[in-house]
Amino acid sequence: MKARMQNPAMMLPDAMKAINLLYKAAHSAGVPTTTLELIHLRASQINGCSACVDSGARGARKAGETEERLFAVAAWRETSYFTDAERAALALAEAATRLADRADPVPDEIWDEAARHFDEKELAALVLWLATTNFFNRLNATTRQLAPQNWG
């Protein structure tokens, strides 16, 4: 399989400027980088975006994530590797990514649990980062942007 075209965001410089501003804003609100990387990875796994799963795992490793936690992200509920705050962020990530899966896309119990661990500025960052991740997942899946195949 090959990409259908270059990533649309890369083809339009003004789009990348806007995306970079969203990235900067989401990463400046005080949410730990590892938490942002974990939710990026989980949303990308759900959406089947190989490029973002690859970049998410690499980014998480660079931010200090362990292999054990990275391997367990898809099964975060069944492991003891994640803090309560990370679990709340991962639950929010899944709900915000699977909007059509339930009548109330982000139920109060998911939102309230996230709000127990993050203040409004941090919640804004989580929601913006999830929206940006889902945006990239859709661009990449539509145009078949693939993870690099440079394995040894």
TrEMBL record:
It holds the Pfam family CMD. GO terms for molecular function: peroxiredoxin activity. Transmembrane segments: none annotated. The keyword ATP-binding does not apply. The keyword Oxidoreductase applies. Signal peptide: none annotated. It comes from Micromonospora sicca. Residues 13-95 form the Carboxymuconolactone decarboxylase-like domain. Gene3D superfamilies: AhpD-like (1.20.1290.10). Keywords: Oxidoreductase, Peroxidase. This is Alkylhydroperoxidase.
